[in-house]
Amino acid sequence: MVEKADVEMEMADNPFEPYIESLRQQLEEQDPVLLIALIVALAVVVITCVFLKYFLSSKTVRSAVLLVGLCESGKTLLFSRLLSGNFKRTQTSITDSSAPYKAKNDRACTWTLIDLPGHDSLRPQYLEKFKSAARAIVFVVDSAIFQKEVRDVAEFLYVLLTDSVISRNGPAILVACNKQDITMAKSAKLIQQQLEKELNTLRVTRSAALSAQDGSIGGSMYLGKKGKDFEFSQLPVKVEFLECSARGSKGEEGEADIQNLEKSLAKL
Ligand SMILES: Nc1nc2c(ncn2[C@@H]2O[C@H](COP(=O)(O)OP(=O)(O)OP(=O)(O)O)[C@@H](O)[C@H]2O)c(=O)[nH]1
Ligand SMILES: [Mg+2]
């Protein structure tokens, strides 16, 4: 009498007990191979879902194309030329501007083009704000006065290339050697070679200084391969050098010469 009451109480506690029991019996009668196949299939579905969620969310978040570089390198004029094709008189930027940019490809992908100020005092905070959203970083260089600025250009590029967030996300890095309409402008090849040399020196002094401070190289990564002269090809991110002129050879009334940049942006 007492036992029956106990069973009834247990049934009331767990109303699914009879179903679980019958499922267990059915599973026990099944072929174990079939059971393993079922578990493997289930695991594959779960892993695929998790992977897809991660992959899709990371793709949708990173849709920004950043225009960065030193002051006066031509970012704002490039911004205007890429968006509307028009020439615009510019003033030094003190904040960011952004607008949707339609890539010139069959997929007609739309990215958010963001022009960042190049002034030393503003650069770090704007880079910090947008770096995690970057799908591509267009690093604009004034090729006409490159020789004079090589050290500053290399220092800024070093900050970008050793940033742990940028290294992890791996946006395409396009070094736009701008102002090619000026006779004195250095070629993309020469700029690449000189930057490789400069970065080679810079990584020695930078990592030595940081190691002396706290015994580590902080949140940033080591640039390139240890024990080898630095080359851009050693990096996990793709760095492409291209020539352009936001002004164009015909001046303010003519078109810009930015086809190389547009082609690279079309491949993102
Ligand atoms: N000759 C020539 N001048 C250019 C070219 N691109 C930009 N400029 C000029 O360079 C100057 C600076 O251009 P901006 O676009 O304002 O430079 P920026 O990089 O936005 O500068 P900040 O906002 O200070 O960081 C302007 O007078 C432009 O007209 C180019 O391809 N050729
Ligand atoms: Mg500007």
From TrEMBL:
SUPFAM superfamilies: P-loop containing nucleoside triphosphate hydrolases. InterPro entries: P-loop_NTPase, Small_GTPase_ARF, SRP_receptor_beta_su. Coiled coil: none annotated. The chain crosses the membrane at residues 33-56. This is Signal recognition particle receptor subunit beta. Its main location: endoplasmic reticulum. GO terms for biological process: Golgi to plasma membrane protein transport; intracellular protein transport; protein localization to Golgi apparatus.
